[in-house]
Amino acid sequence: MSLLKRILLTVLLLGSQLVQAQQDKEALEFSVMVWNIWHGGKSDYIGRDGVEDVIGIIKASEADMVLMIETYGSGKRIADALGYHFHLIAKPGTLLDDPAVNLSILSKFPLGKRVDLYRYFNIGGIEVALGEHERIMLFDTWLNYQPWEDQPELMDKSGAELVEWEKSGTREKEVTTILKELQPYLSTTDETPLILGGDFNVWSHLDWTEATKQVHKGKVVPWWTTMQFSNAGLQDSFREANPDPLTHPGVSWGMPGKKDDHRIDYLLYKGNRLEVIASEIHKVDYNQSFNYKGKTFTFPSDHGFVWTKFKLNYK
């Protein structure tokens, strides 16, 4: 190879490395998990302590942040085992292992100011510092499960009637209040992106469409709850990464021996600098063998977990 060719090759290689270094500076990748661990991972139905399986599964997932539901005293133990920062969504001063507290947030990244709104049992949030100048807001949510039917498509109701039935419980008040109180954070997502996840206990309008009506007894249902979050500008990370609900239904809840498998757990986001790289939902029946990332666990919950990898483009 001539000297000129060697010089040109070196210049090209250095240029490629500089471009890659610049791209690395312009974006940060991180992953978020939302998981209802069921009675603190120690369900009476299982009859054993499944917290070590919760810890092992989170560790294997390499999630940078975890939105936990049904924490019930186990959150601090899990966070300590993983070496994560821990925020209990409860009245300040509450014992961190209080068995009555539903929601918590775990993070590899440092935590900033907390956000208390509506009711601690239903929602709470905290600022997460991704770097010296970058922040995101994380919110963890649980919505009441009533009204519920294992197979709502079998109810003698049209799609519109199912929507009205869905609103007959407490969700309308919960969702309306939550979105109203979230508005200051939803309006500033260009500066500070927002991720909201949780157990919504309701089906998605993105799954009950014209394309899927053959599996829903011919019904198309614009479910009210998920529509409200969508109308507020929040995007469904799993459905964005997996747009076909027939090939990727994303079942996140169901009990053995029943026909009640549905996607009711979500990771939503808002912010034009956030991009979804990948999103997965993993579930097997509780107390069954779960093979994940080359390891085997006994699945400790009736809910599967949603895991999404994001890219944050720097300002």
Bulk shape: globular
The largest sheet has its strands arranged as 3-4-2-1-14-11
Order of helices and strands: HEHEHEEEEEHHEHEHEEEEE
**Mean pLDDT rating:** 93
Strand content: 25-35%
Based on CA atoms alone, the radius of gyration comes out at 21 Å
Helix content: 25-40%
Low-pLDDT regions: 16-24
Structural class: alpha+beta
Terminal CA distance = 43 Å
Please outline the major beta sheet.
6 strands, mixed
- Strand tally is 14
Q: Count the DSSP helices.
A: 7
Please give a quick description of this structure.
With 315 residues, the chain is of the alpha+beta class. It is 25% helix and 26% strand.
Give a structural overview.
By secondary structure, the protein is α+β, with helices and mostly antiparallel strands. Helix content is 25%, strand content 26%. It has seven helices and 14 strands. The chain has helices at 3-26, 51-61, 75-82, 159-166, 171-186, 224-231, 237-241; strands spanning 27-36, 65-69, 85-88, 104-107, 111-115, 123-129, 135-142, 194-199, 235-236, 265-270, 274-282, 289-292, 295-298, 305-313. The strands form three sheets. Strands 3-4-2-1-14-11 form a six-stranded mixed β-sheet. The chain has a six-stranded mixed β-sheet with strand order 5-6-7-8-10-9. A two-stranded antiparallel ribbon has the order 12-13. The longest helix is centred in the N-terminal third of the chain and has 24 residues, at 3-26. The N and C termini lie far apart (43 Å). Mean pLDDT is 93; it is low at 16-24.
